[in-house]
Amino acid sequence: MGLIGNWLDRWSERSTRNVAQRSSRRSALNRIGKLMVGSAFVLPVLPFDRTSQAHAAEARKRKQATDDTACDYWRYCAQDGYLCSCCGGTVSTCPPGTEPSKVAWVGTCRNPVDGKDYLISYNDCCGKTSCGRCMCNTSHGERPGYRLGLHNDVNWCMANDSSVFHCTTALIVGLPEGNA
Amino acid sequence: MNSIAWARRSLLALACMGATVALADGLDSTGVVEMAPPTPQRLYVVDPAFPHMIDGRMHIVDGDTERYLGVISTGYSASVALAPDRKEIYVATTYYARLNHGERTDVVDIHDAQTLSWKGEIVIPTRHAQAMAARNVTQTSFDGHYLFVQNATPATSVTVVDLKARKVIAEVQTPGCWSVYPSPSVAGRFSAMCGNGSMLTVTLDAAGQVLSRRQSAPFFDPDKDPVFTNFDRYQGRYVFVSYHGQVHVADLSGEEAKFDAPWSLLNAADRKQHWRPGGYQLLATHEPSGRLFVTMHDKGEEGTHKDPAKEIWAFDLNTHQRVSRSPGYGAGGLAVSRGDKPRLYALNVEEAKITQVDVSGAKPRFLRTMQPIAETPIQLELQ
Prior knowledge:
The complex is a heterodimer.
Chain A lengths: L6 H8 L65 E3 L16 E2 L4 E7 L4 E7 L1 E3 L8 E3 L27 E4 L2 E4 L6
Antiparallel strand pairs in A: 1-6, 2-5, 3-4, 4-8, 5-7
Chain B lengths: L2 H15 L24 E6 L8 E7 L5 E15 L5 E9 L7 E9 L5 E7 L13 E3 L5 E7 L3 E7 L4 E7 L3 E6 L6 E6 L4 E6 L5 E6 L16 E3 L2 E5 L4 E6 L6 E2 L3 E2 L3 H5 L3 E2 L5 E4 L4 E7 L13 E6 L5 E6 L5 E4 L6 E6 L4 E6 L6 E5 L9 E4 L1
Antiparallel strand pairs in B: 1-2, 1-29, 2-3, 3-4, 4-5, 5-6, 7-8, 8-9, 9-10, 11-12, 12-13, 13-14, 15-16, 16-17, 17-18, 17-19, 20-22, 21-22, 22-23, 23-24, 25-26, 26-27, 27-28
């Protein structure tokens, strides 16, 4: 969902982050993958072709790729919500008895293992009250509501039968160039 | 019958009659507190209660005494607007028949701002944007006649509610646009900020028929320097800031939006240190003094646009000069009291603390940091 999070986590993360604005390279993503934006609605703008979304290639990311219950896990660069991997689900699946959101916002995150950028879909899990565990709020590439597909201050359970927000997953839905 | 048993029976009888007469012998009777008349320092603290969002609240607090005055229940993922005369509070929200499932009903709840009593509801389409509470997603018209409510399915539209007739009169499609910015002079007119950097302005008649839709030329480049959708007002115009510290002042009174030439919050040294605005309700104006306050942080980069303030900067809106730099108090939101003795309220979202700063003089003067009020406060309004 896109809500306030544990800013302490973010502070520690931020200290390792590069100055992304200075990069003008385009993201290497060439495939959107199964973007779970629902069949009835196509997001007007996707981030993979936007320079403002591209990570700075140069260095100092220091995101980790081992613990997906921690906010500095690489896929969570534009996360905003309780991590489903702390709530009975996994990084990509919902906890028992909840339902994946039909629509989502996306981010572009760099995998520290291969140094490549991946398109990440942040699907909420819906239908139960807030999980309340492992809040994580990062906003790399996040944009206001006029770029709704990049906006995380809104409830992405909005299109489900129950729009009650529980937690947020981070699915890889776009692979780097050459891997598609 | 002993005296205690007698007293109990009497109390029970009184309670059954709904009586609130004072009892003799130092015994209490119950009743309901009547709030004292509001002062300019009455605070309305919007709290979505993230750990249990189906039970959101708005807290009402006296800024002078820090006395907690009362609460309004705001349901699930509400957005809230105060009537211009502060007599009513409007809450656009969602209820499920079985709390977290069942039939969904969206309403505008109407509360009396002085008694904090629920006065009634207007059922609205089940599309109200379950967005982070913020000024720009629900606002009344300048005269309090209409309420504009942002929708998202995620297709975007705006529900227009006639608050006098207490009914929905229109739903206006606003594809690719976000926010509701009511005209300062025409009740049936609002604007919305759009993904190509323009402003859409829609004018409706009293029956809810669209009279005109006008899209301005782009006034910013969302790819290079996005503009925050939160706002405050100055001399009937809207004040916005961008991720990189540009100030955009918009005249939204007419059929098509007009803009002043943008100006920057930053000088060359500030740019070198990457100072940027950050937060949620990240700017506030004070009309009589022509001041603009913005929450700022240095070492800004991609992704820091919601960071709490390291400093609060004040500007003269007429000369565009910075007039003061104050500590940031970790603020992610600002509001200034109206009237002669303006007080800046700086909301630390992470710690749920509000710091009061006297901004009536040339230099801001720290007054106090209040004890935490809410669980997860995100929006702050003043009487």
